[in-house]
Design goal:
Layout: H1 3-9, H2 15-40, H3 42-55, H4 58-72, H5 77-86, E1 104-108, E2 114-119, H6 121-129, H7 134-155
Antiparallel strand pairs: 1-2
Helix pairs in contact: 1-2
Length: 157
Amino acid sequence: MNCSLLAFHGGNMTKKERDKAWYEANKVSILEKQKVYREKNPWYVEKQKVYARNRCRTEDVKKANRRRQLARVGWTQEAYDKAMQEQGGKCAICQKTVEGRQLDADHQHSTPPKPRGLLCNKHNQMLGIAEDSIGILEATIAYIKKYQQETLCRKKP
């Protein structure tokens, strides 16, 4: 093992830090090899240009996919945005904001589906599992209350 490699195998560096250090130490050689490859393979350069052009369209594709996803459950992007503003960006059940993701567009499971409100993923799944049945949800509440009462009774001396 040569000396330059030893520097990247020891110490308390993360893999990402080691990779970055290795790249910096070998940058000139890497760039030279890439240049030679591009000169020998002009098709690769063209492929990269096409990729770069299409990358700009990715946002349009994401927007189109989102519109299709919302339409499947009876929502439009405008209705979603309006509901988001009315609810202040919070779940209609727990009133919490969701960091790093959008709220789920809740809907009645009818044909065609009818929008109801925006929910965090946890509460949207809860309604789906309960099959939107008030009876199941009331039985769930009674079950929780029963065991909360038992817990409260045991805590009193």
